[in-house]
Amino acid sequence: MKTARPISLLICALGGEGGGVLTEWIVDAARRAGYPVQATSIPGVAQRTGATTYYVEVFPVPQAELGGRRPVFSLSPVPGALDAMVSSELLETVRQIGNGMSSPDRTLVITSSGRTLTTQERMQLADGRADSGDLLSVVDAYSRAHHVFDMGAVAKEAGTVVSAVMLGALAGSGVFPMAREDYEAVVKESGASAAASLRGFAAAHDFVCHAELDPAPTANPHPVMPDSIRHPSSHADSFPVQVQDMLALGHARMLEYQGPAYAALYLQRLQRVLDAERAADPSAAHNFATTREMARWLALWMAFDDIVRVADLKSRASRWQRVKAEVKAGDDDLLRVYDHFKPGAPEFAALLPASLAARVLRWDRARVIKGKPAWALPLKIGTHSVFGMLALRTLASLKWLRVRGSRYANEQAMIDKWLIGVVDGTQRDWQLGHEIALCGRLIKGYGATNERGKENLLHVLDHLAHGESAAQSAEAIAAAREAALADDAGKAFDSALVQHGAPPRPVKEQPIRFVRKPKTSAAAPS
Fold it and tell me: Can you give the pTM of this predicted structure?
């Protein structure tokens, strides 16, 4: 009793992951095994004040051997004095480490390698995700030992929630003196979902028991592609190994989006970039970085979103299975799914020839100038019904009409202009071509966001890509691109343009609306 001390555990769980249930399981397992235990919790909001944390202490001496004495437990964790910490999200784990909770010489960290992106990460115009490699390095540096695996994937495969997986990992790590049977007994009492919870428990338990406590894993920059898409065509053999994985993904997307002819066009365009890069960098000192970036951004731009694409994605069998799994609907449950659409004049004009599309857009523009809202057609389609699914599949089958529409012609013209800019820039200087290729990051989203990105890219091509000094042009393009991605209002982008001798973007005309002041009734006499 004099030498023993409570074993402390901090649980960090995001909302809806069953952190409270996990804590109850641990407490019940300890009591079942005869050990004194205490648990407390501090509620939090994951993206502001942190996850809801649960603090558990288990005294490693059975109650029967204490002779009536009772251990003294703490109500809250002490930074640097934790024996173990378990978390279902990697960034949340690092946040708790930043709060000083983990000690390099004492704390065992069990965390998921999966990520739930924060609002701040999602708000970035560019890739705002925190680097998982850096996060894993922090876990490695500030833990006595650690187990890192994708808890979400294990839970999904077992058909359960992540709390059962976290319990299995804790049981497998041997942090507490309870036996595996004690944990499993309390899980069996959890109700109808006990079987799935036990599967997730067993998978995590076995993983931790047989895993070596090695340093944090690092992501493979060039993952091995499945055999089904590793060799998209005979043309792929002419591309270097450094490009093969991105090329395979891009080619597969083109096949899915429009068909073999469109995929062949993708390869032809990429071949032009590769030829220019080989001429500019014959020793491959840059590992074909320009061609690799073009394989990524070219595929994303060529597979632009339109109503045909949206209908195709929403009517796939895989989407129905995903929705069914998310709501945990059984085979005997009735599931209804309603999709809301609001296509406007631009969406319908996109599938029309250029002359007809121009007339539709002029009509819609005239409505806006007169003070009316832009025309749109609100739709509510029940995709669980035969009629709703047939409507979406009919719309998804209009791929043949897409290539005859005005938007397809406009998108291809802009892509070709960007492609020419990359090829010409690479022939002048490798760095210049690379910076122009990276400008593909500006094309994202849909609607006004997508149009603004394309306008910014074309403005860069017209005013910054043809300077007398290739090095200065590359520097100016890089600065303008980063400014455009840092500020969605465009003020930083315009400032960067002017700073490098280019004109700011032209001001777009906006209709001025005059609104009559509403009449007010005379005040009633007092």
Answer: 0.75
